Amino acid sequence: MSFPTDTVPALAVQPDKSELIFTAKQRSPKKPLILMGASPESLWPFVSGTAQELETWQQVAQQYWPGALTLVLPASAHIPATMNPTDPSTIGIRVPKSQIAITILSQTGPLATTSANYSGEPSLQTMAEVEKVFPYVLTLQPSEVAPVKPITIGIPSTVAQWTGNGWKILRQGSVQLLTG
Question: Domains of the chain (ranges plus CATH)?
Fold first, then answer.
């Protein structure tokens, strides 16, 4: 399925069906998917860390979520290895600042997601573009989910990986996270 988010439209599947996204996007297994959830609480069971680390991650989540920040954290046993075939020990998690996405994720539970585009191509910006490029994917049209156009920034999320004692920015997006 595909739906609007606060950044760019997403392709999404149940986590145990992640290979469908890799196939549809012609995506390298070296580029993991993101686990998107409706709330931070829905995502914490999918990560594994010390009580102190969890507290740190929760503080960052409280400050930046919902929003355009993906946190790459140690994965728990609940994450299918197919979401990150090259390094199944980590998982990127995010709560989007999009009521449409949160409504969908509240009903489905966390989903394996990525931007809606062929790998290496620019991110698609509208649901009409997604429907044209991926005609076999269930695509929610704005008229089906909301009377107003979803607000998107058109820039993928900032991706920050936990190093054990601080954050390393893997991709800079609109969120400026302090690292250390």
Answer: 2-171 (3.90.870.10)
